[in-house]
Amino acid sequence: MFQISRDIFGADIPEFDKFLALNETYVDLIELTHESVIEESRNGKQILYNVG
Predict the structure, then answer these.
(1) What is the pTM of this model?
(2) Distance between CA atoms of 2 and 12, rounded to whole angstroms?
(3) Nearest of 4, 40, 16 to residue 48 by alpha carbon
(4) Handedness of CA 4, 26, 21, 32 (dihedral sign)
(5) pLDDT for residue 52 is more than 80
(6) Which of 21, 26, 47, 48 would bridge with 9, disulfide CB 3.0–4.6 Å?
(7) CA distance 45 to 13
(8) Measured between alpha carbons, how far is 33 from 24 in angstroms, rounded to an integer?
(9) Mind listing the pLDDT tens digit for each residue in 18-43?
(10) DSSP letter string over 16-41?
(11) How far is CA 26 from the centre of its chain?
C-alpha cells in the first residue's frame, strides 16, 4: 500500500500529507476490492493487489 500511495501521490510531500495519501489509497483499495475490480492476496506479511 505504501508503494501504491507513493506512486500515485509522490514521495516529496509533507509528512501529514503522506498520512492523508496513505489513508486515501487504503480507502480506494478497499472499495475496488469490494467492487471486484481488484483482488487482494497475502504473501507472508505483504498484501498484494491484482487487477481482477
Answers:
(1) 0.81
(2) 14
(3) 40
(4) positive
(5) no
(6) 21
(7) 26
(8) 14
(9) 999 999 999 999 999 999 999 999 99
(10) HHHHHHHHHHHHHHHHHHHTTSEEEE
(11) 5
